[in-house]
Design goal:
Elements (H helix, E strand, L loop, with lengths): L1 H26 L14 H11 L1 H13 L1 H4 L6 E6 L6 E6 L10 H10 L1
Antiparallel strand pairs: 1-2
């Protein structure tokens, strides 16, 4: 628990890029529940981290670390991000897509509450 809090503090203070890069290099391709190495490149993940900001990423990681069993599902359908050409700063937004007869699950409601 102490190690997790230490890493979350580093992420929140802007050091998440280093942690992401080190773990990518050390673990790429290793079997890990919930990780699909081919889905995104390291550069894409770095852009998402920059767009979301360290504090938001640390908050998401904290939620997952505290209750992964219940929070691993219900994520919004889309993560949209925009970075600025001048640097890796930007914005990110989670989007839940629902059809006319779709309803929010309890898990989706939890994530919407946590992400506000």
């Amino acid at each position: 628990k102490e190690k997790i809090e230490e890493l979350l503090t580093i992420i929140a203070s802007g050091g998440g890029d280093r942690i992401l890069e080190e773990n990518w290099k050390d673990n790429y391709g290793a079997q890990c529940k919930g990780i699909n190495w081919q889905r995104s490149s390291l550069e894409q993940l770095q852009m998402v981290l920059a767009a979301m900001g360290g504090e938001t990423m640390a908050k998401l990681c904290r939620f997952l670390a505290q209750d992964h069993r219940h929070l691993h599902s219900g994520w919004p359908d889309l993560l949209l991000w925009r970075t600025m050409a001048s640097d890796l700063d930007g914005t990110a937004k989670f989007v839940e897509v629902k059809g006319p007869n779709d309803r929010m699950s309890d898990q989706q409601r939890v994530w919407i509450h946590l992400l506000q």
